[in-house]
Amino acid sequence: MVGFSSSLGTAFLSLLALNGLGALAHRWFNWQFDITCEATGYFVPGNEADLVEFVRTQYPQKTLLKPVGNGHGFGNLTTCVNDGESNRDSYILSLTNLKHLEIFENKTVTFGGGWDLIDLIPTLEENGLQVANLGSEMVQNYIGAATTGTHGTGKQHQNLANQIIGLRVLNAKGDIHIISQEHTPDLLKAHRIGIGALGIVVEVTLQAEPLSFLKRTSKVVEGPQDITKLYEMIAEYGDKYEQVNIIGPNLDWNVTTEELVPRTSLTLVYWEETDYTGAPNCSVDFCANDCGRCDRDYVCYDYNNYAIATPPAGICYRGFMGQFEHFFPIENLAEAGRDYFNYALSQSDRMKPYQLDNPIEEGLHGGYLSDDVTVITRFIKGDDNWLSPVNKDNLPANASGIFATLEYSWIPSYNNYTLQWFYQDLLKEFIPVFGEKYNVRPHWNKMLFNNETYASTIYPKINSWLDIQEQMDPHCQFVNEFLAESLGIERCMSLFQ
Ligand SMILES: Cc1cc2nc3c(=O)[nH]c(=O)nc-3n(C[C@H](O)[C@H](O)[C@H](O)COP(=O)(O)OP(=O)(O)OC[C@H]3O[C@@H](n4cnc5c(N)ncnc54)[C@H](O)[C@@H]3O)c2cc1C
Ligand SMILES: *[C@@H]1O[C@H](CO)[C@@H](O)[C@H](O)[C@H]1NC(C)=O
Ligand SMILES: *[C@@H]1O[C@H](CO)[C@@H](O)[C@H](O)[C@H]1NC(C)=O
Ligand SMILES: *[C@@H]1O[C@H](CO)[C@@H](O)[C@H](O)[C@H]1NC(C)=O
Ligand SMILES: *[C@@H]1O[C@H](CO)[C@@H](O)[C@H](O)[C@H]1NC(C)=O
Ligand SMILES: *[C@@H]1O[C@H](CO)[C@@H](O)[C@H](O)[C@H]1NC(C)=O
Ligand SMILES: *[C@@H]1O[C@H](CO)[C@@H](O)[C@H](O)[C@H]1NC(C)=O
Ligand SMILES: *[C@@H]1O[C@H](CO)[C@@H](O)[C@H](O)[C@H]1NC(C)=O
């Protein structure tokens, strides 16, 4: 057993805005600075006991409480309620000081809510361990990532939440709930994807696994111009590879014809187990999120977690970007992929007034030329977590239980709110058109605009989840407008009128 604990922990003075003694308001921004809110204050407890005391004190006053991770989202999930918009105080909470970590012989790891992936993954590695899967960059707080269903790719790989076998959760009254796979398996399925609304997660226990190596291959392939055939091909690649990211097709703006033009070359990035033991070299370059080049063939070898997720030297791309990611049963991939792409193409006319007539400048899009609309396809094994975007709860009995995702990014050629919001209007249109047809579930922390009626179709257990929400949070202190609207938390709506 290896134990870590922050010796500084108790020496930290809690950082607390002097409420009532003059405003120390705290403005929060997401990673790309297009989503923001202003809280009455910011509370950074030195340890769990400080947090418990704070939450107990705030309960009678019904103070709004928003725990935040690293703000790597695209929508309003993580926003606080603006100070002055209700008659309550509103606090942002950071658990960054909760940095204890203990590793057990059975490869379970228990750690505080302060751990970010960028520190957690190397710490596990030093102890001969890794997690089963990660997203494409190690930018998130572990809880911030897991609780929204963050995923990587792989038909036999699940999202991060499934790594969790235990949680310590603080409710609005200030009571700790211990939830575990062993003793309360149903509650664990509710809480793994709690999206900040089921309480403050102070500690996680995950099941890690021994370190292993992967070989990563990047390969550029030309796809057919015909979009139906292109998506048949993409679905075949999905069948062929166990763990693959399919980057492309893209839509490029042609300044002469003033329209979007499909570019049907694809970059396959796939991973295979290997017994390689040489020097690891996947961190050199990674065709993901503008962190490296996607236009060439190469292979690399690394520890699993470094081969699938890049430890960014900062964030690779930080300009405005409108992005959704939609999950649906893999059986629908060829048709849904075709229909989504043709729909995006059909929006071309409306983009005309917003395009510059000089070509995309280098720099804004990272170190090399990028595209106006990019599509990425990934795969995830389904699960039974109640609010998981890959929950199997409404699938027909003969379904494989494997999901595909389409990630669409609209990348403006200049950072301008008018353009960013216009792109958001374009991407809002997809769920109403395709949602029911293809059983589409949106990523919780990318752009999501669905209503409660739709939420109850894709999350059949939502009412039981909302019952737990009410028990954990009787005064709606963990709820913001986004949660109230997209989940239909009726009892909290009046706060936002
Ligand atoms: C460049 C980039 C790359 C990305 N790549 C991927 C990818 O490959 N795959 C993928 O699936 N997603 C990806 N995402 C999305 C990202 O994984 C999610 O948005 C994730 O939720 C961000 O984590 P965070 O720590 O920044 O969370 P935040 O946005 O800060 O928080 C997310 C939610 O968690 C809640 N929360 C945080 N901490 C706690 C706590 N202690 N207790 C209770 N609730 C808490 C917050 O209240 C909020 O509701 C990417 C995003 C970006 C910007
Ligand atoms: C976030 O909320 C603000 C304020 O209600 C709204 O103007 C904006 O459109 C929302 N953005 C997204 C991406 O949902
Ligand atoms: C792992 O070991 C710890 C410490 O002995 C124990 O408390 C825990 O129950 C074990 N967990 C599992 C899943 O075996
Ligand atoms: C744009 O379209 C014109 C006319 O079809 C074509 O000649 C030109 O090559 C295209 N430009 C780019 C950059 O593809
Ligand atoms: C990584 O190392 C392997 C084995 O030496 C080599 O074949 C491969 O080209 C290297 N990849 C990169 C990206 O340097
Ligand atoms: C933002 O873009 C819109 C649409 O192209 C344009 O009308 C507006 O002037 C731009 N605003 C700024 C501040 O550049
Ligand atoms: C499942 O059954 C339905 C109805 O019988 C059928 O239309 C569908 O093709 C089947 N799906 C799979 C994946 O076999
Ligand atoms: C809710 O969303 C669904 C799916 O987008 C849509 O069909 C329906 O009209 C919406 N209902 C309301 C009341 O807005």
Write a structural description:
This protein is 23% helix and 26% strand. It is α+β, with helices and mostly antiparallel strands and 497 residues long. It has 2 domains: 258 residues, Uridine Diphospho-n-acetylenolpyruvylglucosamine Reductase, domain 3; 237 residues, Alpha-Beta Plaits (2-Layer Sandwich), CATH 3.30.70.2520. The N terminus is likely disordered. It binds flavin-adenine dinucleotide and 2-acetamido-2-deoxy-beta-D-glucopyranose (7 copies). Flavin-adenine dinucleotide (FAD) binds next to strand 6, helix 3 and strand 13.
Structural descriptors:
single chain, 497 residues, alpha+beta, Uridine Diphospho-n-acetylenolpyruvylglucosamine Reductase, domain 3, Alpha-Beta Plaits, 2 domains, globular, disordered N terminus, binds flavin-adenine dinucleotide, binds 2-acetamido-2-deoxy-beta-D-glucopyranose
